[in-house]
């Protein structure tokens, strides 16, 4: 079955950077929209950013200008570059995959729309 494995989380200070990596296996990676979500304690899982098969990117307003999502179809990997991290970015970050047609430009932002999930990687931002 499909596997999504996140890595790259950790404890950093406000203003620092991290790059999260999601390695996908047992799927035809190029057939999927790939997304990142996050969930803080006591809060619902929320959309962070996603990239469609044809490279269309969308992100939540709170991370625009700070986070960048990218994908490498040759490596079956999606990345989330996080710069200028803030305390409120602290959460468990999840990678997700959704099977979609190539013509889709805007990825869905609802967690229930995605077909497969990773186990998550913790990001903690301290002051």
Number of helices: 0
User: How far is the first residue's CA from the last residue's CA?
Assistant: 40 Å
Rg, Cα atoms, Å: 14 Å
Q: Which sequence of SSEs, written as H and E, runs from N to C? A: EEEEEEEEEEE
Helix/strand/pairing class, anyone?
mainly beta
Beta-strand share of residues: over 45%
Q: Which outline best applies?
A: globular
The residue fraction in helices comes out at: under 10%
Low-confidence runs: none
Number of E strands: 11
Mean model confidence by pLDDT: 97
Largest sheet features = 7 strands, mixed
Characterise this structure.
- This protein has 127 residues and is mainly beta.
- 0% of the residues lie in helices and 50% in strands.
- The chain has strands at residues 3-7, 10-13, 18-25, 32-39, 46-51, 57-59, 67-72, 77-82, 91-99, 116-117, 121-126.
- The strands form 2 sheets. Strands 2, 4, 5, 6, 9, 10 and 11 form a 7-stranded mixed β-sheet that branches.
- A hairpin with a 6-residue loop joins strand 4 and strand 5 (46-51).
- The protein is globular, with a radius of gyration of 14 Å.
- The mean pLDDT is 97.
């Amino acid at each position: 079955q499909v596997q999504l494995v996140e890595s790259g989380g950790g404890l950093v200070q406000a203003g620092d950077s991290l790059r999260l990596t999601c390695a996908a296996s047992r799927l035809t990676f190029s057939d999927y929209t790939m997304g990142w979500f996050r969930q803080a304690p006591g809060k619902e899982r929320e959309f962070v950013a996603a990239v469609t098969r044809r490279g269309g990117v969308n992100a939540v307003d709170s991370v625009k200008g700070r986070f960048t999502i990218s994908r490498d179809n040759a490596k079956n990997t999606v990345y989330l570059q996080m710069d200028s991290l803030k305390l409120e970015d602290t959460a468990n970050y999840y990678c997700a995959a959704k099977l979609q047609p190539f013509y889709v430009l805007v990825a869905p932002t609802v967690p229930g729309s995605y077909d497969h999930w990773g186990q998550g990687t913790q990001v903690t931002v301290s002051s």
